[in-house]
Specification:
Shape of chain B: globular
Structural class of chain A: mainly beta
Largest sheet of chain A: 6 strands, mixed
Number of strands of chain B: 11
Distance between the termini of chain B: 33 Å
Shape of chain A: globular
Oligomer: heterodimer
Order of helices and strands of chain B: EEEEEEEEEEE
Order of helices and strands of chain A: EEEEEEEEEEE
Number of strands of chain A: 11
Largest sheet of chain B: 7 strands, mixed
Strand content of chain A: over 45%
Number of helices of chain A: 0
Helix content of chain A: under 10%
Radius of gyration of chain A: 13 Å
Largest interface: A-B, 24 and 23 residues
Distance between the termini of chain A: 38 Å
Mean pLDDT of chain B: 91
Amino acid sequence: DQQVKQNSPSLSVQEGRISILNCDYTNSMFDYFLWYKKYPAEGPTFLISISSIKDKNEDGRFTVFLNKSAKHLSLHIVPSQPGDSAVYFCAALSGANNLFFGTGTRLTVIP
Amino acid sequence: ETGVTQTPRHLVMGMTNKKSLKCEQHLGHNAMYWYKQSAKKPLELMFVYNFKEQTENNSVPSRFSPECPNSSHLFLHLHTLQPEDSALYLCASSQDRLAPDTQYFGPGTRLTVL
């Protein structure tokens, strides 16, 4: 059973608007969460992370929110740009153990 | 060349073939990983090497055989694969096994088993 779930396989957003990508997890032992971005024909690249002791982390246009009680995190991109079009993977970590990935959400930003 | 490179980028093989995937990292990292990504499934960790020693084998069938001759190179030897093994195989590296959250990924090898 998947421990990290991204239930929306795709999302389309108009340029300049906010993109919100969601991720749910089942393992309460996860204490660190990451978002990766993947362009076609390239490997995933690290985007932003958040520790379980925080509920928000911001880096430029990217903000990740963590709701531990709901076991839910989200990535907000504002304003969205066409170059943000990619597949976004959510991942979770427990201690120094392995990363568990979601299935990804394909974001398309329409110019 | 920088980062993590993988060759070949695409591979088509029959079920009786033997082939190898190669990964090379130019980041001075000590941990390397093989992942498998099948369609509509999350990335699945296959193997972990830390300082050239295999530290994890995630119940991977023996038809996949990893090799790590040094901290910069990682191979995945393939033999008698099945069509369901068709997937994208990603290599990654991190400073060490204790820092899996800072993994750098290669572009992957798209494998098709006929």
